[in-house]
C-alpha cells in the first residue's frame, strides 16, 4: 500500500472539505482529488490541484470576456483545429499539479522535461524511507539486440529469480548501511550515542537508483501532452510508461475534448515524408515500387510498409 | 468605461455561477473574479483563474500529503525563510491567469517576461476596436536629463495641450485610414462594394503604438513577483506601473503572507556591497569616510549615502 | 540601403579582423559574418556569432571526448535519425546570434518565440530613426475569405495606390509629430529652446506599427528550426516569411546536414491520422471511399485528398 | 586520472587543430579548451565551446553594428551598471558548453537548473563505467544540528574508516552485480553464453547514487552566474561547490569584467531590509538598539549583527 495510515488520514481530511468557487471546475477530477493512484510497487500519482478545463482552452483562444463558446460541439471543433495546426498556446492555459512517488532512475528521466515546476523531497534535509522498486518477474526482460535502448523477451525463470534476489538484497543492504552511517534506525532514532553519524547529504550516496523519491510537479496542459507523447510511447521505458498511462487517464477525465484531439492528431497516425507520399500516390495509382529507386533508408522503407500495411 | 454592456453581461453571467470544489480556495480573490479592474483610460486587468494559496507554497516546500502546516504563524515563518534565502521553487506552485487590455507600447515591455503563457487578440484574424491611450496631462512629463530612460517635470500647459492634440488627432486619423484601407467601418461593415479592402494583417501596420490590444496571460507566483519587482519599481515606465500596482493588490488579496515576505525581503531594503558594508562598519565605529579612498564610483557613493540617510 | 556609411564601416572593421581558434568553425558562415543581408525595404539580418556545427550535434548526442564521428555519412545518418525520432536535445547544442532590423508589427510576432535571448534597441533611451515599412504593390493583397488570417488576390492598381499613399503619409506625419513632441529634429538636435520636449518613452506611442526596430537575438538550433517551421510556412504572414527565408539559407550554410534532415522530416511531408492511414490502405487495395462514412470533417477530407493527389 | 589514454588522445587531437575565425575569441579560454579540469576523485569539467566575451555583452546592450565600445574602462563601467541594476539580458548573449563527469547524486542537484541544454550519457543505450565517488576522509563530516541541510565537524578516524569501507564495498558489490545481471564483464564482453542478460535500462537501478555519469551542458552566461551564485555558496553541498569553483575560474578567464562585477555586486555584500537599514541609521547616529523592539526574528537579528560586525 503506498500510503501509511497517517498519510491516508491527511488525504482523507483534505478530501472531506469542500469550498464554493466561481472558477472553472471539473467534477470528474474533483472525484479523485488528493487520492493516491497506485503505480509500480510503492509509487503513486496524486492530483493536488488543477486550473481550467476544455472550455478554458477555447476561452483563451478567443481572448473572450465570458465562456469560450456555448456548445460542446463548437468547443470540440475549435480544439481539434488548434491541435491539428499546432496552435499550442491555448493549451498552456490549463495547469495540473501532482504529487508523485517514483524510483530515482525514473525521476531522472522525468526531470529532463524542463518546462514544469518541481519541489522534491530533500534527502539532505530528511532521511529517505526504506522503499525501493523491485520489478515484477514479467518485467525482467533481456536487452534488445534490435533496439539498443530497449528490452526484448522476458528472462527465463532461473535467471529472473537470480536477478530479483540481487536487486532485493543489494537494496536492503544499501539501506541498512545507510542507516548505519547515519547512526539512525529506520524511524530516525539514534543507534549508538558514541558515534556522530554521517551527514545525510553524504550518506544518501550509498542508496541505489531503485530507491523511491517523491516530488510535487506542476505543468501546463501543453507541456503535459508533450511529456505524454514521449513517455506514454512504446519506445519509453516500461516503468515511466506506467506513470504516463495513469496521467493519460487523468487528462481524459480533466479535459476530454483535448484528450480526444490529442489521441487523434498527435499520438495516432504517422508522419510521411514527401517521398513517402509520392510512394503512396503511386501505390494508389496501381504502380509498383522498386525500393532500389528510393532515397529513403532500408529502415525507413520497412517502417513505411508497416505503416501502410503492405506485405511483400 | 472599459467594458461594453455585452461584455459586462458575459462577466456577470460568469460571476453568477458558483461550484463546489475540494481545491484550495481564496475568498478574497473569488470576490473580484472576472471583474474588470480599470487601468489607464481604456485598459483593465481581470483575474480569470488562480491555483493555490499561501498554504500551497508551504505544502509544496514540505512535499506534504495534507495541508502544509496547521498554523498561520508557522506558514508565515516558512514563507519568510523561503523568500529571504531565494528558495524560489515553492512559489512556482501557485498560478494566476488574467485578462489584460493594454496599449501596444506597454504590451511590448510586458511580453519581455518570457516565463509566462500568452494568448493575444489577433489583428490578423479580427479588426481592432478604435481605442487608444491618451495620457492625463499630469503624466506628460519632459525627458529626464539625469536618467536617459525616464521622465522629469511635467510639461507646461501650452506644450502639454499641443502634445495631447497631436496624440489624439494622429491616432484618430490612423484608425480612420485603417478602416478606409480595410474598406470597413468601425462595426466591421463594408464601406464600398467596389473595393476589395486590404488584408487585416497589413492594414494594422498603420495603427499607432498607443492602440489597445488585449491578452490572456498566465504566470506562476514566483515569476509574477519577478515581474512586479521590475515593473512596480520607480524606474519602470509609469504606464506599466499602473498595471503592476493593480497586480500587487491582487497578490496581496491572493497570498497575503507571500506578499508581506516579498515587500520585506525583496522590494524593500537595499543590497550593500562588501565595500559598502565596510563603510557602514566604520561609520558605526564613529570613523569618518574619505570618499577618495573608496573603489566605488561617485554615483555608487551618492546612492550609498542616500541609503544610509547620510547628509554631507 | 539598409546601413549608413558609418555603420558599414563598423561592419567592415569587424570583418577585417581574424583570430585563431580551436573551436568548431564553419567557413561558409564566416564568409557572411557581420554582413547585413537585406530583407524588406529597410530591414536586414546580420549573423553576429555562432557556436557549433553539424559535427557538434553528433558530438553532443554521443557525449564524446573527441569529434562526433569520423565520416560525414555517419554524421548524416545519425542526424537524420535524431530528426525523425524527435530526439531534439543535441540540436540545442548549437547557437546562432543575429542582429535583426524589422518592422514593429513583425517584431511582435517574432517575440512570441520565448526560448531565445533578446536585446532590443530602446526607444525609452534613444530616438528611433525615421524608417518605416511600405510594402511593394505586389504584396498589397485583399483579405482572404477562406482564411481569416490570410491574404488573397492583389489589390487593383487604383486601390493599391490609395493604400500606399495612406501608409506613407500617415507614417511620415507620425514621425514628424514624434520629432515635434520630442522637440528634436531627425538628427536629435533641439528644435525650440523655449520648450521642454516630451519624454521619449511617451512620444514613441505616436509611431505606427510599421516603424522599424532592431534587436540582437540569440537562439539555439532546435528552437531556430521550430521558429522556421512556423514562420517559413505558407500560413505565416509574408513579411515574417521574408526573414525566415533568409534564416533558412543561413541554416543551410551553417549546418547543411541538419538543414537537409529538417527539410525532409519536419518541413516536408504530412501527418496522417489513423483514419487517414486507413483510407490510404483501402485506396491502395483498390477500394473506393464514401466520405459520408468518415469521422473526419469535410475540411480534413479535402486536405487529405489534396495530400494524396486525389481528384474527384 | 580522469581520462583513459584513448580519451586523452581524442582530446589532444582536438587541441592540435586551429582554425581562422572572425568571431569574438578569448585566448585565455582557448588555452584550456577541451582539457579535462579534474574535480573530485574521478570527475572533470571540460570546456567544449564558447560564444562571446565581455565585449559581446556590451555590444548586445548597445545593439551595436560594430564592437561595443572602444575602451576597456567603458566596457567595465557598463558591465558594472548592468550587474548592479539587474539588467540581465545582455549576459544571456554569451554561451558556454562544457562536458562534465560527476556523481549521480550531484547530477541530480545540478539538473534542477532548467535554463540550460543537456545531453547525458545514456545507461539505457550503453553500460556505465565502473567509477564511483568515495570522499576524502576530510569531507566525511557529521550531520549539522544547526543546519538541517548541512555538515558539521569531521568524523573521528574510526567512524570515518567504517563509513569509507561501507561506501567502497557497497559500490563495488553493486557494480559487480550490475555486470552479473547484464551478463557482461566490465569491458562489455559476454560472461555466460547460456544466459540472456538483463536489459541495461533495468540493471542500472542497482547502481548507487555515488556512480559517475557524464553530460554535455550548455548554458548562457546569465544563467551560469545564477547557477554559481547558488552552487558556489557556502550553503551548497561541498561536492557541487567543487564543480562550481572550477567553473568560477573558467568565468574569470572567459569574461574577467563580468566576473569582477559578479563578485562585487552579486556574490559579495548583503541585502538589508528596511528595518535593517533603520537599525544601521540609528547605530551610525550613536543610538543603541533594543532587540525586543524589532520586528525581525532572533535569527535575522543575529545575522544582521554578524553582517555589521557587531559584538554584544
How is the topology of this model organized?
4 copies of one chain form a homotetramer.
Chain A: H1 5-16, E1 19-21, H2 27-30, E2 37-39, E3 43-51, H3 54-61, H4 72-84, E4 95-103, H5 104-110, E5 117-120, E6 141-143, E7 151-154, H6 157-182, H7 200-203, E8 212-220, H8 221-231, H9 238-254, H10 256-267, E9 270-272, H11 274-284, H12 298-308
Can you give a write-up of this model?
- 4 copies of one chain form a homotetramer.
- The first copy, chain A, is flat.
- In chain A, the strands form 2 sheets. Chain A has a 5-stranded antiparallel sheet with strand order 2-3-4-8-5. A two-stranded antiparallel sheet of chain A has the order 6-7.
- The first copy, chain A, folds into 3 domains: 190 residues, 2-Layer Sandwich (Gyrase A, domain 2), CATH 3.30.1360.170; 76 residues; 35 residues, no CATH class.
- Helix content of chain A is 44%, strand content 15%.
- By secondary structure, chain A is α+β, with helices and mostly antiparallel strands.
- In chain A, helix 4 runs parallel beside helix 10, helix 8 packs antiparallel against helix 9 and helix 9 packs across helix 10.
- Chains B and D meet through helix 4, strand 9, helix 11 and helix 12 of B and helix 4, strand 9, helix 11 and helix 12 of D.
- Strand 1 of chain C pairs antiparallel with strand 1 of chain D.
List keywords for this structure.
alpha+beta, flat, Gyrase A, domain 2, 5-stranded antiparallel β-sheet, two-stranded antiparallel sheet, 312 residues, homotetramer
Amino acid at each position: 500500500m503506498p500510503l501509511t495510515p497517517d498519510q491516508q488520514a491527511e488525504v482523507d481530511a483534505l478530501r472531506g472539505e469542500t469550498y464554493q468557487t466561481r472558477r472553472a471546475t471539473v467534477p470528474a477530477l474533483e472525484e479523485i482529488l488528493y487520492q493516491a493512484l497506485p503505480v509500480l510497487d510503492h509509487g503513486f500519482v496524486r492530483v493536488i490541484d488543477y486550473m481550467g478545463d476544455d472550455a478554458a482552452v477555447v476561452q483563451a483562444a478567443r481572448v473572450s470576456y465570458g465562456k469560450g463558446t456555448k456548445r460542446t460541439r463548437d468547443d470540440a471543433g475549435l480544439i481539434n483545429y488548434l491541435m491539428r495546426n499546432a496552435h499550442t498556446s491555448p493549451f498552456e492555459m490549463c495547469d495540473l499539479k501532482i504529487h508523485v512517488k517514483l524510483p530515482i532512475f525514473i525521476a531522472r528521466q522525468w526531470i529532463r522535461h524542463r518546462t514544469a515546476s518541481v519541489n522534491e523531497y530533500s534527502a539532505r534535509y530528511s532521511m529517505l524511507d526504506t522503499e525501493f522498486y523491485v520489478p515484477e518477474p514479467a518485467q525482467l526482460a533481456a536487452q534488445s539486440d534490435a533496439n539498443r535502448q530497449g528490452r526484448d523477451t522476458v528472462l527465463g525463470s532461473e535467471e529472473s529469480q537470480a536477478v530479483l534476489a540481487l536487486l532485493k538484497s543489494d537494496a536492503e543492504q544499501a539501506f541498512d548501511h545507510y542507516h548505519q552511517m547515519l547512526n539512525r534506525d529506520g524511524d530516525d532514532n539514534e543507534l549508538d550515542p558514541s558515534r556522530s553519524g554521517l551527514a545525510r547529504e553524504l550518506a544518501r550516496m550509498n542508496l541505489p537508483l531503485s530507491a523511491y523519491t517523491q516530488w510535487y510537479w506542476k505543468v501546463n496542459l501543453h507541456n503535459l501532452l508533450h511529456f505524454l507523447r514521449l513517455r506514454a510511447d512504446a519506445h519509453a521505458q516500461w516503468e515511466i510508461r506506467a506513470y504516463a498511462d495513469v496521467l493519460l487517464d487523468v487528462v481524459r477525465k480533466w479535459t476530454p475534448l483535448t484528450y480526444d484531439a490529442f489521441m487523434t492528431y498527435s499520438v495516432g497516425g504517422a508522419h510521411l515524408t514527401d517521398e513517402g507520399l509520392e510512394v503512396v500516390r503511386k501505390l494508389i495509382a496501381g504502380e509498383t515500387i522498386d525500393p532500389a529507386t528510393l532515397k529513403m533508408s532500408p529502415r525507413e522503407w520497412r517502417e513505411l510498409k508497416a505503416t501502410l500495411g503492405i506485405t511483400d
